[in-house]
Write a structure and sequence with these properties.
By secondary structure, the chain is of the alpha/beta class. The strands form 4 sheets. A 5-stranded mixed β-sheet has the order 4-1-3-2-5, with helices on both faces. Strands 6-10-9-7 form a 4-stranded parallel β-sheet. Helix 4 packs across helix 8. It is globular, with a radius of gyration of 21 Å.
């Protein structure tokens, strides 16, 4: 990868300049979108790439979360509508060549509103998504089949007629995500983390013949791209399919089809101020834990959206009250380091009398 030179101005000054640009945009016109790509980077390239993204995307008033690692890039962002064309040009002419001209197109959400993130953060991670496995045991270059939404719809719609059995369709998201929306016939594991999803996937597929087609889906595609590579390279399955762009892309496609009924029911859970985007009008279930719970001096609570976010939205906020962060800007304390596994958090919620997310039904 050839990272372009970037400004050497102080990070604080850049942050102030970017904030002033963001405030000049109408927060109600932001469009939420995503893109990702697994691609090998060296560690020395990451800091320069991080600064370049902060500088260049900040010029467009973009906010959101971008994770980069030696595995590639994963971005969930919100862009002022008037800058979408500039962002697409930047993706095509600047970012795409860095990824061997194979970076996916911008995956635009199905619902918007006020901007769904407060600020722009680009963070360097060890992995884009933590799988709990030894990375030497699988090959991310062994990517699964990426079906277009139209191909995905056709394959799932006709599979039982053609093969005399239902497809193996795995939801690679956490259980609280699948509780508000899922594809008909999907296996929805009781997973709290991506590692749990990988464990469940391996258990589901353990005794299947290796020529069995496997279908899987997630929000935008990145979790399935990695999971599919693991199944094909580590478990030696011949064919794993995912829907290109995930539920988001499928939802956008099916909304444009007058003669197609959606195979996905309910809402697509999103990790931003929207807390989900509608695919169909069906309301499957709600999950809205509220109030603060103290766990070893740490507050775990739901909080109203930040400035310029939709006031009716909520987001999960986890942190220590009154304790200054002593980490460098490239290092953040992850919730799991403070609180332990998600199951332990839920136990504390239960002790405090809070409503817990309902257990999913395996379909």
């Amino acid at each position: 990868m050839n990272v372009q030179p970037f400004s050497t101005s102080k990070p604080v000054e850049r942050g102030i300049q970017q904030l002033s640009k963001i405030e000049n945009y109408d927060s109600s016109t932001y469009k939420t979108l995503a893109f990702y790509k697994f691609h090998k980077f060296t560690k020395p390239e990451l800091e320069a790439f991080r600064t370049q993204l902060l500088t260049d995307l900040g010029e467009f008033g973009i906010v959101g979360r971008i994770y980069i690692s030696t595995e590639g890039v994963n971005a969930q962002i919100a862009c002022p509508e008037e800058c979408l064309e500039k962002l697409e040009e930047y993706r095509k002419n600047v970012l795409n060549p860095m990824f061997d001209n194979n970076l996916m197109e911008l995956n635009i959400g199905t619902e918007h509103g006020k901007r769904s993130f407060r600020a722009l953060h680009v963070r360097i991670r060890k992995q884009l998504i933590v799988d709990g496995l030894d990375s030497s045991t699988y090959d991310l270059d062994n990517e699964p089949s990426h079906l277009s939404p139209a191909e995905w719809h056709e394959r799932l719609s006709t599979y039982e007629t053609q093969h005399g059995e239902k497809p193996i369709l795995i939801d690679m998201r956490n259980h609280y995500e699948s509780k508000i929306g899922y594809f008909d016939g999907a296996i929805c594991p009781d997973a709290d983390t991506y590692k749990d999803s990988i464990d469940a996937m391996n258990e589901i597929c353990e005794n299947l013949p290796r020529d069995q087609e496997i279908f899987m889906y997630c929000t935008g595609g990145i979790r399935c791209t990695k999971a599919g590579a693991i199944l094909q390279s580590a478990s030696k399955f011949n064919t794993v399919h995912l829907v290109e762009g995930g539920i988001t892309s499928y939802g956008r496609w099916v909304s444009e089809q007058e003669d197609k009924e959606s195979l996905f029911r309910g809402k697509n859970f999103t990790f931003d101020a929207r807390m989900g985007e509608k695919i169909t009008d069906e309301v499957i279930e709600h999950f809205e834990p509220s109030g603060a719970v103290m766990v070893d001096g740490v507050r775990v609570f739901m909080k109203q959206g930040e400035k310029d976010m939709d006031a009716s939205s909520k987001r999960v906020v986890i942190g220590k009250k009154g304790v200054r962060c002593d980490h460098e800007h490239t290092r953040r304390t992850r919730a799991i380091e403070i609180l332990g596994q998600p199951g332990e958090i839920l136990k504390e919620w239960a002790k405090a009398g809070r409503d817990l997310p309902p257990k999913p039904v395996q379909l």
